[in-house]
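dumping this here before i forget
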Amino acid sequence: MPKKTRCALTSRPPRAERGKAAGDGAVLRRAPFSENPLVGARGQRTQQRILDAALKVFGEVGFHQCSIDSITTLAGCSRVSFYQYFSSKEDVFRHLGAQVARQLNASTDLLDPITADDAGWAGLRAWVHRYADIHDRYRPVFHAFAAAAESDALLTDDSTRTAQRYIAGIQSRVADPALPNRELDAVVELFRGSLGRALDDLSTLASAAPHAFSRSHLLDSFTDVVHRTIFGLLPTVNVHEHRGRRPPKLAFGPIMRAAMDHDLASGAPELDGRRALRQLLAAAHGVFAERGYHGTRVDDIVDAAGVSHGAFYRYFKNKDDLAHLLAAQAMRKVSTTFTAIPDLTSDDQSSRAALRQWLRAYNRAYARETAMIRVWADAALQDDSLTEDSAAVLDWGRRRMVHFLAPQAFGDPEVDAIVLLSLLDAFGVRERPPRTVNAALQIVERGFFGR
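structure:
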């Protein structure tokens, strides 16, 4: 389901800016601003003020629309001061990423042994809570990571190394898991990717229904699912119910309704002039996927489609109008796969095979549309009215997962459905190898159904 794109782990500063600063927290002034690069407490406060301002700007406008001027204005400093500490906005983002990585690693280092008893559950729940606090503090970094990584390979490399350490750190603390080690690492990797998504989904749903869901209940549910996946169903340890009134059904807003109506109209039998529309849609999908929302112009789309600007404006008011349509198409294609999710009322090999086949089909459908779902997320940063539609689409998926979880004889399906939805999104974002498909299967069977 659509949402803002996010990462689970970020990176470190460039190697040239590591060294003593990485060891004792000292701040280094960039050459050639001073013969002595080390600065004192005042310089550290200035650098942190710039980082705090950048974090806010990244959250408000995204990575691509963020500028050095907008950062320095909010930080109350000059561009000269900025360049004493950072070479570019990419450099600022790396430093923010380094802060996230350090805090996540420190949180994992504090993780107590994960055992099959109440103490093990409590230690895991405490770690989940710490992660949620870090995610809330640095939400713009998580959301903007994919866009920043497009122009900065160092981010991707360092993020991969940090993620590997992170996964290994969690796995090393699991005591006597019911899963073999070769399966446990893939399971931990999927959970790593889904926790931030679950928190984002909760935030989006809460924007439309503020009192319908509880953050604490979501974290309990997430911890239960992880613990059940690792150790199996233990009713007195990893089952917590918080049943209340059923959350309200969220209705689609005018933007999504108009885009879906346009989507249906664009699929009508081809009439005079409709060929240009089909060319525009096909070309725009490719251009948006390659250049992203902010990097795409109407000129790029019409050039790729081989049509005139007049043909473009015959069907669309602007780039946003076209982006909304393509995003609606992507969401419809992904959502359609939810209707085919198999019934798991029985626990047999045929049900297991059906679920595995469905997971593969869902992965293919979602991976093909990931770029357009990102377009929606980037557009939503510029248009708050899209949040209402994002919440409605998420709620549709959540309610479908509640229906899927109906055979579950424990837990709280209304909240567990958010965890399941986030897991499927983390799983579907790119094409997965068989080991990851098997990990998703294990989580659904063991974590959600206790089998």
